[in-house]
Write a structure and sequence with these properties.
The protein is of the alpha/beta class and 268 residues long. It is built from ten helices and 14 strands. The longest helix has 14 residues, at 246-259.
Length: 268
């Protein structure tokens, strides 16, 4: 059995970073890299690197990109025995970064995750019940999110992924309570249509979301729970090289802290 199970996207990141000032609407000189990615895979990879007993549940293509993702993830100590290998293209994420490493635009193709259905996960119920925490990203199908929240809401952590996919979390809260979610500022606003973060968090609490850790980039994070709100300060003098996967790494750190028995404030 596993201490933590992470469910969602595993893909290849194609990152293009401009070497000089980024100019929209034209070709920019720069560098292009191919690395394993995917929100759930990234979180699992970080947890595996920290020595946690962690399993990934995802749908991965039976192709070269899938082989790369599986090799890197397994090398980090993540168990992949619960993953599906599909005769379809492994998911991909294409990001364009400016000269400072900040995201300019991105497109993801996660259609393969439509193949990851509740019936693929239900056989692993004993492992899910034994896990201390379950993390799921909103790349997953709504019916799979529904199954997880119905059965494991008290230990379910939801990563919204993006502004558009955060709406899956909002729909989920119409039917179920959820232990914790990790949106960023834009995702929080998209879900609530409220500019004030304190009020937006309260709106989601009233819908059934028990805890939020809102990622604020260089401003740190905002923790909101039944005990009130607290600002989590950012690391001092951090030099950002590339924002790709930064939110996933922050989520992994939060999950690791909770696994170690820290309260949510210390974990965040």
């Amino acid at each position: 059995m596993f201490d933590i199970i992470v469910i969602g996207g595993a893909n290849i990141d194609i990152k293009a970073q401009a070497s000089g000032k980024y100019i929209a609407g034209t070709s920019n000189p720069g560098s292009v890299s191919f690395t394993p990615g995917g929100v759930a895979r990234n979180i699992a990879h970080n947890l595996g690197s920290l020595g946690v007993s962690v399993a990934l549940i995802s749908a991965i293509g039976n192709d070269a990109a899938g082989d790369i993702a599986i090799s890197a993830t397994g090398a980090a100590g993540v168990d992949l025995s619960l993953c599906l290998r599909e005769e379809a293209a492994t998911g991909s994420y294409v990001a364009v970064l400016d000269e400072k490493g900040e995201l300019v635009s991105a497109v993801n193709d996660m259609r393969i995750l439509e193949n990851l259905k509740p019936e693929n996960v239900k056989p692993h119920r004993a492992a899910l019940e034994a896990a201390k925490l379950i993390v799921v990203d909103c790349n997953t199908r709504p019916d799979l999110l529904d199954y997880l929240a119905l059965n494991f809401s008290e230990k379910l952590i939801v990563e919204p992924v993006s502004v558009s996919k955060s709406q899956k979390l909002l729909t989920l809260l119409d039917r179920h309570e959820v232990f914790l979610a990790t949106p960023n500022r834009d995702q929080l606003k998209a879900m609530t249509e409220i500019d004030d973060m304190d009020q937006a968090c309260q709106d989601l609490h009233e819908r059934g979301l028990h805890n939020l850790v809102v990622h604020l980039g260089s401003e740190g994070a905002l923790l909101s729970s039944g005990k009130g709100m607290k600002n989590i300060h950012a690391a001092n003098h951090a030099q950002v090289r590339d924002v790709t996967g930064a939110g996933d790494a922050a989520a992994a750190g939060l999950v690791y802290g909770l696994f170690k028995g820290y309260d949510i404030s210390k974990a965040a």
